[in-house]
Amino acid sequence: MNYVAAFNGLLWLLGTLVIFIFLQRALHREIQAFFLILTRSAGVTQVLFALIFFPGVLLHELSHFLSAKLLGVATGRFSLIPQAQPDGKLRLGYVETAMGGFVRDALIGAAPLVTGSAFVALTAIYLLHLLPIWDVLRSEDLGTFWTLLKAVPGSPDFWLWFYLTFTISSTMLPSQSDRHAWLPLGILVVGLVGVAILAGAGTWMLTNLAPRFNQFLGALAMIFGLSGALHLMLVIPLFLLHQILSRATGVDIG
């Protein structure tokens, strides 16, 4: 069996996830730097930043809240008001939930990624028609890629869907606190797979389960790839605006 081909979805996922996280952080940094230079106020910058990403933050926190309710886990306070943290980071919102065991906690923590990915996939495929662009990019046909990309802004209500897809994809990744139950769940899953292999089910799993799992990882890689492409389209002009504004005002944010 060609194991590289069998698990190429995992390779695509790791690659697109790393690139997406880099572009997401770079874009957030450029947005905050631009507003901070423009307004000279950390408070105003935080408010403007929160307003830009409000749709994504709303979906993120609602996903936590509704998944907790569906799983029978008690919820507490719910906030969409940005708050500066002692470590200098900005918390855009939160939902308090009781401990429900590592399985339910892991599902609640992953809920924003599930709803955000679903929104990005549905919007990108059916409203922005980006799937052919992703397929062409994977085939390295850059000529066709640029031709298809130029036609995207002609989609109905393009800027509305572009904005919503951008803000939701940019806020769909679970935070560190959201991921606190992922390690024990991962250990449990790996343990179960190990037991199944020792029991002689390894060949059956590779034949029947691995292809479906690889397709799932490939689909997730497509979502991160499309999200990364949206961020790349914004981070370059924002970087240039940041540099222009910095030269004009003599102020820069590192």
Q: How much helical structure, as a percent, in the residues? A: over 70%
Overall form: globular
Q: Got a strand count? A: 4
Number of structural domains: 1
Low-confidence stretches: none
User: How far apart, in Å, are the first and last alpha carbons?
Assistant: 49 Å
Please work out how many helical segments DSSP would assign.
Answer: 10
Class by SSE composition: mainly alpha
Work out the strand percent: 5-15%
Largest sheet: 2 strands, antiparallel
Q: What's the SSE pattern? A: HHHHEEEEHHHHHH
Describe this structure in words.
With 254 residues, this protein is mainly alpha-helical. The chain has one domain (3-243). The chain contains 10 helices and 4 strands, in the order ααααββββαααααα. The protein has helices at 3-6, 8-39, 42-52, 54-70, 102-127, 131-138, 142-151, 158-170, 182-208, 210-249, and strands at residues 75-79, 83-84, 90-91, 94-97. It has a two-stranded antiparallel sheet. Strand 2 and strand 3 form a beta hairpin. Helix 8 (158-170) packs across helix 10. The model has no long low-confidence stretch (mean pLDDT 85).
